[in-house]
Amino acid sequence: MLASWLTGVRNERGQDVGFRFMEETLGVQVVGDTENDPQDNFLIAHGDSPVSHHLPAGMRIWMDRVKGLYPLRLAGGHTAVHIMDWSRKVALDKVSANVVFDERIERSGLRSRSVILGYSEQLWVSADPKLMEALSHNALLWLLRLPSVYTASWPHPYRSALVMAVDVAGPVTDRDMESAKLLEQAGGRATYYVVNETAAKSADRLKRLQSTGHEIAYMGDKYNDFREQPADVQAQRLDNMLNTLRQHGLEMTPSSGFRSPMDSYDRNTESLLRERAFGYLLGTMDSSEARLPFLPVERNGPSSPMPSSGASLSTRMLVLPRTQEGPDELVDNCDPEIGLKPFFKELQLSEQMAGLSIVPLPSRNELTDVQRVEVFDYLGSRRMQKWLSTASQVAQWWHERERVSVQLGVVNQSLHLSISIAPGPALKRAPAVWINLPEMNSVMRLSAAHNSHPAPRTVAVDAWRSAVVLDGLAPGEYHWVVRFERPSTGGSNS
Question: In degrees, to the nearest 5, what angle opens at C-alpha 217 toward C-alphas 308 and 180?
Fold first, then answer.
């Protein structure tokens, strides 16, 4: 069942009959709307969701505000889209789910699927039509129980990725080394952005960090803005930065990245970084509408909200957008009794969305020792779901992911999965191809089609999806026949 906005709240005579139909038939509760929250006028989509996977993680979709047609806040089911402000800031006391889905076994024994769109159809016309059509298309395919296939945003088995980005504008301290050890114990490594002064005063400690797997990246010759400086001045500053780090014996990879001090950069900065073959630029929150890496547009204009499947990423600089505040910023702006709760909730939401979290942390931060341990303990508890990676590893993965293309089609009355891995080096991390199941808890089986390569490993993602893990596959074309076995218990479809 596909329902939108206030379905069934009025009878045939137009009289208000409440939310009983939505609660009993659709399985959701209406807990409010956005009338009193004028900033909450963006749909924020989950990536890699059964009903919104054509949209990249955290995609913003602007919704008009029309009196009497305010989007709903829904409780129940599983969330695919939130209604939030532009910054995606999480409020502890506010329900933000706006599109929810579920599959239930009714009293009749039949399985019933539902998708509830918490916005009025009248608001569709003012939103981006391509994004709204993508969301509607995904929802209908899932309701019709038609299998869909897509490459997961992150390597198997991760649901999201997190980069701990440490600004080191001054000497590396004992506290920095302690934080690095805590992150190592949590299963991650940080990316340290350094200026020339840092390299001069802390080269030995930076080398020690590198030796244990942490990443050193660039943050300019000095802690000053790049934005609106003449291109020749910026070029001289970048070259000075590159030479200084080399002079102090810091081994930088060809794919090293750059973060501008105070996030202050412009089109000239981007162009100069591309000329110098940087692997990535750490972007700002307004550099992308989504929460995923992207290729910057090489002309005056906004970045494309939808990644291009035809573009080659192998030698091009990516932008990794910042999408949330760090724990230091949130603690500084919050009631002490609230503490780190908003930070953890934002990380939880990013994980649900399959997004990239760039977590900024100044080397001289305001966290107490207890709060610092709390942050790294939380990261350690999510290490099997959240990829605790360095920034260059994320950029490298995004290059590799772009080489994988998938298609699901019918050949001789059989469902065929076709996977292509473009020529290049062997993939360092295993991509996962996710397939929506036609029935909750059904089992997916693969068998060889035209090729002799044995079927890869398949694992359950959740009740509605299975993953094909492309571990160890060389570049080439692969084809498998797909079949689904109905669950051993439960009702029939409706």
Answer: 115
Q: What is the pLDDT of residues 461-494, one digit of tens each?
A: 999 999 999 998 999 999 999 999 988 655 556 5
First to last CA, the chain: 9
Which domains occur in the chain, in start order?
2-146 (no CATH), 160-398 (3.20.20.370), 403-485 (no CATH)
**Residue 361 half-sphere exposure toward CB, CA atoms < 13 A:** 24
Maximum C-alpha span of the chain: 81
The pTM assigned to this predicted structure is 0.92
| β-sheet bridge partners, residue 281 | 258, 319
Q: Is the pLDDT of residue 311 over 60?
A: no
Burial code (b: 16+ CB inside 10 Å, e: under 16) for 321-342 equals bbbbbbbbbbbeeeeeeebbeb
- The residue among 74, 71, 2, 89 whose CA lies nearest residue 35 is 71
Rounded CA-CA distance 324/418 in Å is 37
Query: What's the DSSP call for residue 322?
Result: -
Q: Is 214 helix (H, G, I), strand (E, B) or coil?
A: coil
Residue by residue, what is the 3-state secondary structure of 149-169?
EEECCCCCCCCEEEEEEEEEC
pLDDT value at 284 more than 60: yes
- CA–CA gap between residue 258 and residue 277 (Å, rounded): 11
Tokens of 155: 């390597």
